[in-house]
Amino acid sequence: MAGSAILGVGLLYLLIGAMEVNAANILFSGLFGEGSHFLSQIPIAKSLTQKGHNITLLISEEFSHRAKNPAYSGYHFETFTISDHPGLIRRTTENSARVAFGKTTSVIQNMELLPASLFMTKEACRAVLSDTPLMDRLKDIDMIVFDLTWPCGIYMKSYLLRHMNASSIRVAVTSPMSPLQYLHEIAGSPFNPSYQPTFATGYSSSMSFTQRFGNVINWAIIHHLGKNRVFDCFSDLQKEFDLDSDLGMSSSFYYQTIDLYLMNIDFAVEFPFPLMPNVIAVGGLTSGPANHLSKDLEDFMNSSGEDGVILFSLGTSVSTFASTRSDLMEMFFDAFSRLPQKVIMQLKDSQRFKIPSNVKALPWIPQNDLLGHSKTRVFMFQGGNNGFQEALYHGVPLVVIPFQTDQPDVASRIVSRGLGVKLDKKLLSTDLIQQKLSEVIQNSSYSITAKRLSAIFRDRPLRPADRAAFWIEHVLKHGGKYMQSPSHELSFIQLYLIDVALFVTGIILVIFYLIYRTCKLCRRCCCRSKVVKSKKD
Predict the structure, then answer these.
(1) Which of 276, 310, 504, 537 is deepest in the core (most CB within 10 A)?
(2) Is 204 found in the same domain as 71?
(3) Per-block average pLDDT, block size 10, for the chain (537 residues)?
(4) Is residue 12 part of a domain?
(5) Residues with Cβ within 8 Å of residue 290, at least 6 apart in sequence
(6) How many CA atoms lie within 13 A of 338 on its CB side?
(7) How many domains does the chain have?
(8) Range of the domain at 506
């Protein structure tokens, strides 16, 4: 018995030892420190901190207020400054918000905004790489977790390895948006435009012929033009900072450098498609149980009675529309004043407007906590991926007004799954806003569907942030090479089996040719036999 007990204890210690991971130094770079890109990384950082890892958050000095927020007191912050272009990030973001109200499609808007966006991201990366003291402080980093829309993490890795004598550095990518074909390409994960909608099209997986044609054009031409512009733009940094010679020249280098891809999606509402083992779905990063509201908010929610509350937000950047489109703001207020529900909304510069008595406007709202309140009846929003998944977690039906980037894609998932309705930004009116909100509140099918899909969404063995943290630790221990797709090691001809198709076609042609020659020879022999027979007769 004693021997068995000792053996059991020994096995337990071995198991615990095998489970332990040495504390690692992990750098998070969530697109400068603002908006959903930053916020979706924080839960992963928090989970890794609880596991004993040291987390550093790299942000722009334009958002240095993050470092003073008590909510982020457990992290070390590093800031960078774009000295030659002060305020560049805010100006670019505000311009993007203004363009969002244009009448062009999101695909066209993205192409219009691409030059300014590339300039901003390149200058931000140049500022980081030029800051030698900063790079020296980061030389002990074991892993870089960066946002897909800002590929500077790859350039930082190359710089640290070549110029700071850093040891091996793992790399993970986070994508806070709906599925992006660019990520599939660099990860070597299959992408089939016949049923996988391309970015910003707003298509579902069931496309008409016209939509499939447009989807293919967007995938084959627009996407690749944009991708090549990114590579060409950042290639200047390769020469300027003496980085790896092939850095930024093709997606193949990205594939060799990146170990792990974390996508903020969940197949409870996502259109099904295949993923390579190094691409992990971790949808719902910012969602979770609701915290208690402040007394002021709690009293407002409870005062709504049986009618309940409408939650309204257009996100971090688009919510600035009050300063440029006051006519739209008045339209929303007029619609809200006609409804029996109370409304909580995110609005900056609320003092400029005469706000209806049933509306409470705040510069910032605890969105996830309000969505989890029993009085919340519907969430009207711009189609941000984080807000979508927070509403899904709490089973709240939706009214979506997509403006830009991947918001039309989120809207297509909401409508396709029966979670709510979509409003066209070009057709907004007081009557339409009132009608759609009333429809979703009064038609119980939306609420029933939201609660059913919420149950699927929440039925997971690990929280999304813990799942992401697990895979980051796994890559730290074992690397991600073994999970990589071999697609980048194949040429275009090999990948799409063009050589095999040509070979099989050649064999078929040879067989048909031999059959033809055989038939022709048989015919000739038959004709000769007939001639000989006729001569004998």
Answers:
(1) 310
(2) yes
(3) 44 42 89 87 96 96 91 92 89 75 69 81 93 95 93 92 90 91 89 92 94 92 73 81 77 82 96 95 95 96 96 75 73 95 88 88 93 97 94 98 90 97 92 97 97 97 96 96 89 91 96 91 78 61
(4) no
(5) 368, 369, 370, 371, 372, 373, 394
(6) 15
(7) 3
(8) 487-515
